[in-house]
Write a structure and sequence with these properties.
By secondary structure, this protein is mostly helical. The chain is 77% helix and 6% strand. The longest helix has 70 residues, at 227-296.
């Protein structure tokens, strides 16, 4: 059964949907572009305000380290102290103070690989795991942010994009490594002077501050020596050289193909001529002049 009014209503709704969708799509595209621009602006503003010590790529790692430090200080107290010690080829984390005031770390000595110790970001294993996590987050954020800046820029070249990614990731990786080294050195130093053990607050804060300071210093060196510009120019020159090399290689291959084809065609012509002459000679000698004339002199 046909319902004309229902069909008309459905057709009107379908037409209205087609009329609205382009506007909605344009609005979504504009909002996404504005959102991306806001992220890039926040990234650049944070780096500018902190002198390069922090930006949106390094902030997550710093917050994670701060969270681990906060949990540790909550567990052992502001004045809580610990140090690492190697005995019989094994690394131990030794806590100073009263175990009774701690909720999880009830003992005074744990293997550095103990899940309880690793959960609080203490010991070589925890430092390495935290460094790997921070590096993955940092690299992902820098790549995404640099690509967003490249997309929204009308003048940036691919060589500049790759240069930005390489320099940003290199600076971030060195800063993370410096923070990890500071944390490990602080724990070892506390073990060397157990009579005046360094508070956990100093070790945690020192690692974060060292990482930020190294990142800031490397950022200043980048600006001072124009590392991005030099790397971009080197990448652009390398790309052009590779392109010229590929073009020359392609030209040589094409010329070789033409030469080979000509040689094959020439060989084919000579072979055909040889067999044709052989055929005529054979018919002349075996079949006689009459057969030869019948075949070739019609």
């Amino acid at each position: 059964m046909v319902y004309p009014l229902a069909e008309q209503r459905l057709a009107q709704q379908h037409s209205a949907a087609h009329d609205v969708n382009p506007v909605q799509d344009e609005a979504i595209a504009v909002s996404l572009e504005a959102f991306a621009q806001a992220i890039v602006d926040a990234h650049q503003s944070m780096a500018l305000m902190t002198g390069g010590a922090l930006d949106l790529a390094t902030l997550p790692g710093t917050l994670l380290d701060s969270r681990s430090g906060h949990q540790l200080l909550k567990e052992i107290g502001i004045k809580g102290r610990y140090y690492t010690k190697i005995a019989n080829g094994k690394t131990y984390v030794i806590f100073k103070g009263y175990p009774a005031v701690r909720e999880v770390l009830k003992g005074t000595r744990y293997l550095s690989s103990s899940p309880k110790v690793v959960a609080f970001g203490i010991g070589p294993e925890a430092i390495r795991a935290g460094g790997r996590a921070n590096a993955v987050i940092m690299i992902t954020c820098y790549v995404a942010l640099d690509i967003m800046q490249f997309i929204m820029s009308d003048t940036q070249l691919y060589s500049e994009l790759f240069a930005n990614i390489i320099v940003d990731v290199a600076i971030g990786a060195v800063a993370i490594g410096a923070g990890m080294a500071a944390a490990a050195a602080g724990a070892l130093l506390a073990g060397a002077i157990t009579t005046v053990a360094i508070p956990a607050l100093a070790i945690t804060a020192g690692a974060i501050v060292v990482g930020m300071a190294v990142g800031m210093a490397l950022g200043q060196l980048d600006k001072m020596f124009g590392l991005r510009e030099k790397l971009s120019a080197a990448l652009r020159w390398t790309g052009e050289a590779v392109a010229r090399g590929l073009q020359k290689t392609g030209q040589v291959i094409r010329e070789a193909q033409v030469s080979m084809r000509q040689k094959v065609e020439g060989l084919e012509r000579r072979s055909n001529r040889f067999f044709y002459d052989l055929e005529r000679e054979t018919i002349w000698h075996l079949g006689g002049p009459d057969l030869y004339n019948q075949i070739y002199r019609r």
